[in-house]
Write a structure and sequence with these properties.
The complex is a heterodimer of chains A (479) and B (280).
Chain A (H helix, E strand, L loop, with lengths): L22 E3 L2 E3 L3 E7 L4 E8 L2 H19 L4 H17 L1 H12 L3 H22 L17 E5 L5 H14 L3 E5 L6 H12 L7 E3 L4 H8 L6 E5 L2 H11 L5 E5 L5 E4 L5 H13 L11 E5 H16 L19 H16 L3 E3 L15 E4 L6 H4 L6 E7 L2 H9 L6 E5 L3 H10 L4 E4 L18 E2 L4 H6 L9
Helix pairs in contact in A: 2-4, 3-4, 4-5, 9-10
Chain B lengths: L29 E2 L5 E3 L6 H20 L2 H17 L1 H12 L3 H21 L3 H5 L1 E2 L6 E9 L2 E5 L5 H14 L3 E5 L6 H11 L8 E4 L3 H10 L5 E3 L5 H11 L5 E3 L6 H6 L1 E9 L3
Parallel strand pairs in B: 5-6, 5-8, 6-7, 8-9
Antiparallel strand pairs in B: 1-2, 3-4, 4-10
Helix pairs in contact in B: 2-4, 3-4, 3-7, 4-6, 8-9
Classes of the chains: A alpha/beta (479), B alpha/beta (280).
Chain lengths: 479, 280
């Protein structure tokens, strides 16, 4: 028996998208000079024209941020700074539906996820960090912690507003001002956030938002008026940034790529595990740096898990992101779709076996069916490279030691998953895994109180919690 | 007193608990402050560094797994052994650097005390930099700091013994293993300190000591793909940029410090956050 779902589209009436946007500098929207289109990746509809910031705009934004830092923000008491952050959190909650719809239109992620995950978590990040603003001296980061100054922040397209919150909230709480650049393909919610800053009456220049592509990002990274760079994105670009700032005094945090192992031991609760595997790799179309993209199955349960996983995947609903029943939405861009397609083809060419459920993908827009590859070896590109799409590579193991060895056999170290009902084994595995976030019998959980970030080539520093806060304060003994 | 010819020490490297000569066969001359010949220590090569990294990597699993209590006792044991050989260190420091005996004695005293200080940190640093995180959901969520892995360090030129200990002690406190390049001009106390380490129950490979030139060894440390982090406190500021550029290839955690501080320990630790559901 099959159940049909009636369409349940979310209304887009709640958002009004302007035909053209400028930058948000010194508390005001200023017109851009050049523009590029931003599209809905589910339909390829052009949503708006986004300004491309060049040297003049970045200079102006840094100048505004510096002025706000020296004249206002660094002089304000933590108590008052905190109240501005609380205001922002509350306005984001009030306008949550508007943010969710806009995020889904611009990014392609299911409305269910933007509504239930991205936006509430973004507001929670501001609410959490608001409370730190007047308690920094109790954070265990020195008795008189000082902000760094002006932070340049460059964020990715996979969780546009949430990544903005991860960057802006701790920076402001610690007393810094910011110049933020959203990703080229997803600027709209950052520009709506600029309106929130206005509604919150945040002093001019504390938050500046310049839109653009990698060239704008490079201008921020190399700007001499910036004291700190915070970047979330690819390991490749992260290394470029690390080299670019090497001769400077800038401090840096990097949140980069991953190739997380999701380890299923033979005593795992199989049905829960299957849900966890699906969430681990197909959440947000797999556009997740910490996605559980390498499934490691203990041999004696591999067949059962794969059987149930395929059954479960048959029921994943791929399609209109605005439909409240949709599980997997559109791939964010044509370029990303090409990258996923290329890596999946490498999986075929290298001898892994591809499987996808039958699903009717829309004719327009960018789509990739949820896919698993079995018979994957550690040497395969699909086991080594970050695909950043809904593609799962399945490997097997016999002993727990072998699982750990395979899991750690990667230059990345962002996250990992463990599925087992045995507490001591779970804790043993979490000790052995060289990764910054370990999810045991769960996956892809995030919280502002919980530090997030990677070992090895997955980056520098943590975001969230007391650890994340330290990234925006002067070190105790560092030069 | 007598016409006895004294037996002089050959200063070699300290790798994996042994005292090999440099594979390069190169040495350089160390003279006293007054210009008299003292010794021909090794001029370590890239190959020596690689050997030391292999030893440090192999030692990491065991040292990292050792209990904090055990690591603390071994650090304390190093302090005990150093205390017992104060006179030898004082003589070497005076001979090589020309400082007064009083000053050399203070350096050795501070070195012993510094080791005792870090010994006490092994089982306390986690309560300082770890946390339990009250997430908004039915999960037990905690963050524990653990060692980053293999760390390369450059000791400052002076003070030659205390500077070396300042660099090395915080690195191994948390379970890292280390390859350290000693002071170039005053390497003798570093190599004599290796003898202290060899009698302190410190597992082989946890601390490896090279002597040689910063400009020769530091860039190879920075580009070595099996080194996770670097302490460049002893590197001249003009070399920092070059090292950081090379270190970016595997995103090494590269730090330099001004003083002894628990922040030095934390800088070479990774925060690991574990989520687990709560339920029946």
């Amino acid at each position: 028996m099959s159940f049909e779902y009636a369409p349940a589209p979310e209304s887009r009436a709640v958002v009004s998208i302007k035909p053209k946007y400028g930058h948000f500098i010194g508390g005001k929207f200023v017109a851009g000079s050049k523009h590029f289109p931003t599209i809905n990746p589910a339909t390829e509809e052009v949503l708006s024209q986004i300004a491309l910031a060049g040297k003049a705009e970045v200079d102006a934004a840094v100048k505004a941020a510096r002025k706000a830092y020296t004249t206002t923000w660094s002089k304000m008491s933590g108590k008052e700074r905190g109240k501005y952050l609380y205001r922002i959190a509350r306005i984001m909650q009030e306008r949550a539906r508007e943010f969710a719809v806009l995020e889904t239109l611009d990014n392609g992620k299911p409305i269910r996820e933007s509504r239930d995950t991205d936006i509430p978590l973004a507001a929670a990040h501001f609410f959490y960090h608001a409370g730190w603003a007047d308690k920094l001296e109790y954070a265990g980061l020195g008795t008189s912690p000082k902000p760094l100054g002006v932070a340049g922040q460059i964020i990715p397209w996979n969780f546009p507003l949430l990544m903005l919150a991860w960057k802006v909230a701790p920076a402001l709480a610690a007393g810094n001002t910011v110049v933020l650049k959203p990703a080229e393909s997803t600027s709209l919610t950052a520009l709506l956030f600029a309106e929130v800053c206005q509604q919150a009456e945040l002093p001019a220049g504390v938050v500046n938002i310049v839109t653009g592509d990698g060239s704008t990002g490079a201008l921020i990274v190399n700007h001499p008026g910036i004291d700190k760079i915070a970047f979330t994105g690819s390991t490749e670009v992260g290394k470029l940034i690390a080299r670019a700032v090497a001769p400077t005094k800038k401090s840096v945090t990097l949140e980069l790529g991953g190739k997380a192992a999701n380890i299923v031991f033979d005593d795992a609760p199989i049905d829960e595990t299957v849900e966890g595997i699906v969430n681990g790799i197909f959440f947000n179309q797999g556009h997740v740096c910490c996605a559980g993209s390498r499934l490691l199955l203990q041999e004696n349960v591999a067949e059962e898990v794969l059987h149930k996983l395929k059954n479960r995947m048959e029921k994943i609903r791929v399609g209109d992101p605005m439909d409240k029943n949709t599980d997997v939405g559109a791939i964010n861009s044509k370029e990303q779709l090409a990258k996923i397609t290329e890596l999946a083809a490498a999986g075929d060419a290298e001898g892994a076996e591809r499987w996808s459920p039958a699903c009717n993908l829309p004719g327009k827009g960018f789509w990739f069916a949820p896919t698993i590859f079995t018979g994957v070896t550690q040497a395969h590109r699909i086991a080594r490279e970050e695909i950043f799409g809904p593609v799962l590579s399945v490997l097997t193991f016999r002993t727990p030691q072998e699982a750990i060895e395979k899991a750690n056999n990667t230059p990345f170290g962002l996250s990992a998953g463990i599925w087992s009902e045995k507490g001591s084994r779970t804790l043993w595995a979490s000790q052995q895994l060289r990764a910054g976030v370990i999810w045991a019998n769960t996956f892809n959980k995030f919280d502002p109180t919980s530090p997030f970030g990677g070992y090895k080539e997955s980056g520098w520093g943590r975001e969230g919690g007391r650890h994340g806060l330290s990234a925006y304060l002067k070190g105790v003994s560092h030069e | 007193m007598s016409n006895r010819i004294d037996v002089k020490k050959t200063y070699k490297l300290y790798i994996n608990g042994a005292f090999p000569r440099t594979e390069s066969g190169r040495t350089y001359e160390v003279k006293s402050a007054k210009g008299a010949f003292i010794a021909n220590p090794c001029l370590a090569s890239r190959k020596d560094l690689r050997d030391a990294v292999v030893a440090a990597r192999a030692a990491h699993a065991g040292w990292n797994k050792a209990t904090a209590y055990n690591r603390g006792q071994i650090l304390y044991r190093i302090a005990e052994m150093l205390e017992g050989r104060r006179a030898q260190f004082v003589d070497e420091i005076v001979a090589v650097t020309g400082v007064t005996k009083v000053k050399a004695e203070k350096e050795v005293t501070d070195s012993v005390d510094r080791l005792v200080w870090y010994a006490g940190w092994t089982d306390k640093i986690a309560s300082l930099s770890g946390s339990t995180n009250p997430v908004a959901g039915p999960f037990y969520n905690f963050t524990i700091p653990e060692s980053v892995g293999v760390v390369a360090a450059i000791a400052p030129e002076t003070p030659s013994l205390l500077g070396l200990i300042d660099v090395v002690a915080p690195i191994i406190t948390s379970g890292n293993t280390v390859i350290v390049l000693a002071s170039t001009k005053a390497p003798l106390s570093a190599m004599t300190f290796a003898e202290v380490l060899a009698t302190s129950d410190l597992p082989h490979g946890v601390i490896n000591i090279l002597t040689g030139k910063k400009e020769e060894i530091a860039p190879w440390m920075a580009s070595h793909m099996d080194i996770d982090a670097m302490d460049i406190s002893g590197v001249p500021a003009k070399m920092h940029s070059e090292i950081k550029v090379a270190g970016a290839e595997n995103l090494k955690r590269i730090h330099s410090f001004k003083s002894a501080d628990p922040g030095r320990i934390i800088a070479f630790m990774e925060a690991k956050t574990v989520w687990h559901p709560i339920g029946l």
